[in-house]
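Notebook entry, structure prediction.
Reason for the run: the old model in the group folder had no record of what sequence produced it. Starting over properly, with the input documented here first.
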Amino acid sequence: MSTDASRKPNYNRRFLWLALFIVVLFGGYSAGWFYLAGKLENEARANIANLNRNGVVAECTNVSARGFPFRLGLFCDRIYFEDARQGVSIATGSFRSVGQIYDPRHLVGELDGPARIDVPQIQPLALDWGNLRASVRLAQPLPQRLSVEGKELHARTVAGTELATIKVFESHMRPNGANIDLASSFSDLTLDPSVVGGRMVPPLSGQSDITVNNGVQLINERVQSLRGQSGTIRMLDLSTGESTGLSLTGTFSVAQDGLLDADLRVTVRDPQGMATSLGNAIPELRKQIQQGFMALAILGDSPSMPLKISRGKATLGFIKLGRIPPLQ
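New structure, fully documented this time:
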């Protein structure tokens, strides 16, 4: 009996070592997290300080790293940026960003309103929104994906003049080989009559899906001119109702002198409905609009016509539309 008892496993000692291992592991992880958090805060403060020169003022009030134990991100109570030389300033509410410890390349940020934007030659703008979020998956030389989405955007001047509201909007960017894919959508864009000369424009919705050729190099070199660029429009759509709208597809290119070449196709959904919407928005041309869309209605509910642009000269079918000035 004594021999068997001496060979009995010591479970208390095993549990003690397991508990000690867990404490050391958690303590080491905690120390590592707080080390990274401190490093992140210091880098953020240094980057902000580097921006504050040559007439630029940048603030991220009460910057701090949060998210323990499984997340890590920066938080600010207020964002402010001003470039006195350009006459531009932006002030917003709080900012939050976070990345998962197990997936640090995927970052998500949220920005709270309201915001005030001052730019030259227009009245100061006041923006507010229900939700504004951005996400990015980091990669080299450009992010694998960048997305921005928001809800209930409300724009007015600081003086109180209403401008526009948007129910939902989003935009996405991703590299596709050497090219860049751009996609966006919005719904229920309502323009105040004061923005469009007192005209009554119906609520608008839209979608776009465009590829810019050689876009990665253009972004890396910070090219700001359209000249010498080309791409493909898989979808460019504007809707004035559930079944009413215009869509555009095709290819385009801009020569070094700024003249546009394009091989496009325009589709009109519900021509009579479009005539009504445009006639209400442009009443002085109501008769001409109705006559033109009446001819399109003969071709069906969704007639499609080629839109050719050659060296800036635009032709819709056999109708000459005029000349497009050189692009910058």
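Summary: The radius of gyration is 28 Å.
The old model has been moved to the deprecated folder.
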